[in-house]
Amino acid sequence: MNTKLATLLSSALIMTLSACSENPTPQSETAQTTVEIKAEQNNPLLAEFSGPYGGVPAFDKMGLADLKPALEKGMALKLAEIEAIVNNPEPANFQNTIVALEKSGRDLSRVYKYWGIWRSNLNSPEFRAIQKEMVPKISAFNSSITGNKKLFEKIKTVYQGAELKTLNTEEQRITWLTYNSYARNGATLSGEAKIRYAEINQELAGLQTQFANNVLADEENYALFLSEKQLAGLSESLISAAASAAKALGKEGQYAITNSRSSMDPFLTYSDERELREKVWKTYYSRANNGDEFDNNELIKQILHLRDERVALLGYDNYSQWRLEDRMAKNPENAMNLMKQVWPAAIARVEEEVADMQEIADAQGANFKIAPWDYRYYAEKVRKDKYSLDSDEVKQYLQLHKLRDAMFYVAGRIFNFDFTPVPEGSVPVFHEDVKVWEVKDKTSGAHIGLWYLDPFGRKGKRSGAWATTYRSHTTFDGKKTVLSSNNSNFVKGSEGQPTLISWDDAETYFHEFGHALHFLSANVAYPTSHSGVRDYTEFQSQLLERWLTTDEVINNYLVHYKTGEPIPANLVAKIKKAATFNEGFKTTEYMASAIMDLLYHTTDPAKIEPQAFEKEQLAALGMPKEVVMRHRSTQFGHVFSSEGYSSGYYGYMWAEVLTSDAAEAFAEAPGGFYDKDLSKKLVDHLFSIRNAMEPAEAYRLFRGRDAKVEALMRDRGFPVTK
Known about the structure:
Elements: H1 3-18, H2 27-39, H3 67-87, H4 94-103, H5 106-120, H6 125-146, H7 149-160, H8 169-183, H9 191-220, E1 223-226, H10 236-248, E2 255-258, H11 261-270, H12 274-285, H13 297-313, H14 319-324, H15 332-363, H16 375-387, H17 391-395, H18 400-415, E3 417-421, E4 435-441, E5 447-456, E6 466-471, E7 482-490, H19 503-520, H20 534-544, H21 551-557, H22 569-577, H23 583-600, H24 610-621, H25 637-640, H26 651-668, H27 676-687, H28 695-703, H29 709-715
Parallel strand pairs: 5-7
Antiparallel strand pairs: 1-2, 3-4, 4-5, 6-7
Helix pairs in contact: 1-3, 1-6, 2-3, 3-4, 3-5, 3-6, 6-9, 7-8, 9-13, 11-12, 11-16, 15-16, 15-23, 18-19, 19-20, 20-26, 26-29, 27-28
């Protein structure tokens, strides 16, 4: 790196700590630096996406040796662009301030796409070393921009100026989003408060990264290896998957249950070995809570203290108050009120479910009370007893590739999308498991984007399922098409055999595809219009789950993996009849996590010892002893590994109210879930506009009114009170 670049980057990282960001580099020097930096851009992580389909990421050229230099150059380039905005002698207006900001940072944004792949899909000790070094620097860099006084004054001038009224709806929205983002993230502070705010951001960035890495370490470092004698109760497909997992871990001939939900959940559902169920359950739910080097209890305390201190600098009473101010809920009281409306019915249902399980256990001569590691196992027996429904029988009809085809069918009917596999090797991928499809408009044939799929679990890949984009749709500076991606952790079927998944996993598959369709259907001008409102962005994906149970999907894509025969009508009837089965468990484990999230962020951190706090608060709520939080505190990555869902995990249920209400609209439509007119309204008002409109207003355009919580209660089979 040349001296001028090193000086610029160093200055960027120091600016926040010295509170001198309001004294930018002279414009002539900035221009000179920009030219010299651009001359050095031979780093593949910085390069413009090239090749077919409007350019694609160079996943075949990404190397960790390039990551740190690319981040440093990318940050320097963006700072030069920011300084050019600040030093523009013309009066601040929408074009030279807001639009200029929308254009800035493209080089760094591309680097972050590769960073995201290493962090989520290809994590390694080598990457973690770079991550540990760079995360605080990235935080300081971000603070140097949000803390730039002159930049904020320009943004404020546009936001408060007469020009705002002349802008269109999206332009007004992104101006407000930009102003609000800066104002809520330290731009209004000065002096020691500004310095401390930036310091806290750096400290949090490091702690949150460590939290995530500790959970990943406990997932990677454990697997339960079984012999053939310990497989009682497991189906042929589960045994095959466990054998494949053991082989991948160097234990061919044995059977592995890994410390991931996709492996743990089916084992707890079917294994007849109670001691092994207990062992797997305890190992999974004690992740990062074992008093060793990967323990997260102390990190939680530090994170909560720092978040509380930071929002106090801005004048808020607690972190939740700050976090929810620009969400649909608006404040923690509204979020908690929704939880309280549903919680009593949920725990009452758990009591009924446990009674049914205990009856079966007692009839079998079991000399014990139902424990958490028994819940899934005996719930499955109740399902068979009450509904004659065997989850493993259903699983034989849930082939991963056929479900993917079903999702394509739904996308074609509702969004008018056509998915075609791209020729092998024509688009670079970061792992051999990743496959790519081109997405076109079925009517016009116009190219819309690409869809990447990375479906299987592996070492170094974080748990769970998620969606992301490598490029989002925009039109303000030349039309950009979408590069979207879905990522899962399914246990791959043995060689030559299809991957079979559970009904819950099938719903998750559709759910994440809903996020991808949200990306692909976007029709907005500006990047900021893609910023999400957390208690709204899950709505689109939750709604897509409803198409899994439509007759068109069931009759054409749910076929037996051996015989190819469609799923029998009587089995479908059982599935639909049992739609609200075990809803007490599912709702309670989720809501316990959502409520604890809000409690963690509305309580004085000085009063919190994580394990004691979790135990005390859940006891006060009347948490059934047979159920635990879906995400125990030490592994609650949504909340403590970043700030994406912090104080916002309730948002899944907030969005579920919208989902249930919208689903009733489709159920009542003349064409049902494939009604053309309602589908168009769905795409036009709730998918294509992203965050270019206030979500509540957008929903009213679709439904003609606000959503009602009664639809959610009906969906879950809970009593609806007037």
